[in-house]
Amino acid sequence: NAGVTQTPKFQVLKTGQSMTLQCAQDMNHNSMYWYRQDPGMGLRLIYYSASEGTTDKGEVPNGYNVSRLNKREFSLRLESAAPSQTSVYFCASTQFTLHSGANVLTFGAGSRLTVL
Amino acid sequence: DAKTTQPTSMDCAEGRAANLPCNHSTISGNEYVYWYRQIHSQGPQYIIHGLKNNETNEMASLIITEDRKSSTLILPHATLRDTAVYYCIVFRAGGTSYGKLTFGQGTILTVHP
Question: How high does pLDDT run on average in chain A?
Answer without folding.
Answer: 92
